[in-house]
Amino acid sequence: QVYVVFSEELKCWCRALVESVWCQADGYQLRCFLVDYAKYCCVASENIRVLAGAFAEIPYRAKKCRLHCTKPLTLHIDYCENTAKIGPAKRWDTAAIQHFRKLLD
């Protein structure tokens, strides 16, 4: 379900999908994906509203996607044997993400 949340970073109300909820001392925090900005943000529970009426039917401007059959790789360094090999990784490293964004621009 799509909600409306107030983004402190963007200083406006945005449509969002709630990814997760966790409890803190001052209330609940929600991790949200902003469907029109392709960004993740955390918002307090008092900054979320139900999306009403025809606004829920407007298509999203951003979509979550993945590269088909592309797995993250990283450089594995073995200091004992003085070797370096490229191998699988659990997640993309920061340099790879920055390089990909430059290619898209």
From TrEMBL:
tRNA processing among keywords: no
Top EC category: hydrolase
UniProt KW keywords: ATP-binding, Helicase, Hydrolase, Nucleotide-binding, Repeat
Catalytic activity: ATP + H2O = ADP + phosphate + H(+)
GO MF annotation terms: ATP binding; hydrolase activity; RNA helicase activity
Name the UniProt record assigns to this protein: RNA helicase
Domain Tudor: 3-68
Pfam families for this protein: TUDOR (PF00567)
Species: Anthoscopus minutus
InterPro entries per the UniProt record, alphabetical: SNase_OB-fold_sf, Tudor
PANTHER family: ATP-DEPENDENT RNA HELICASE TDRD12-RELATED
Single biological process term from Gene Ontology: germ-line stem cell division
EC number: 3.6.4.13
